[in-house]
Amino acid sequence: MAGLEIALGATGQEASQIRTHGEAYGAALGAMQARGDGVSSWGDDGLFAVFTSAYAECRAVSMAALSGLSGEMSATGETMQAVVKNTADTEAANAEAFQNLNRAWA
Questions:
Q1: Among 15, 28, 43, 99, which is most buried by a count of CB atoms within 10 Å?
Q2: Tens digit of pLDDT for each residue in 89-98?
Q3: What angle do CA 72, 73, 75 make, to 5 degrees?
Q4: From CA 27, how far away is CA 89, in angstroms rounded?
């Protein structure tokens, strides 16, 4: 057969693994976010306010970016699973239509 072929079993397994990685990544980020901004451990008496606020802002931005990455990983796994389902459904519909082709001409 020429053209595009999808190994449905392998794609389904990879989809599941990618989705699992995304969920695990999100759980790890949840633990990091639960620790807070991290600047309270510095024991700052106000002298480093400019640095601590910049640090807290950078940390917040990076946590938002990493959370987005986790979501994209999970969404990629779900989309790959949808490709597997759609491809299997299309193959089944094509096989049924091909079997009914002779009846349409009779």
A1: 15
A2: 999 998 888 8
A3: 60
A4: 33
Query: What is the C-alpha separation between 43 and 41, in angstroms, rounded?
Result: 5
State the residue for tokens 């959370």.
67
Identity (one letter) of the amino acid at 61? V
| Tens-digit pLDDT profile for residues 46-74 | 777 788 888 888 988 998 999 999 999 99
What lies within 8 Å, CB to CB, of 19 at 6+ separation is: 73, 74, 76, 77, 78, 81
SS3 for 101?
A: helix
CA 65 – CA 71 distance, rounded (Å): 10
Q: Are 80 and 6 in contact (CB under 8 A)?
A: no
pTM over 0.85? The answer is no
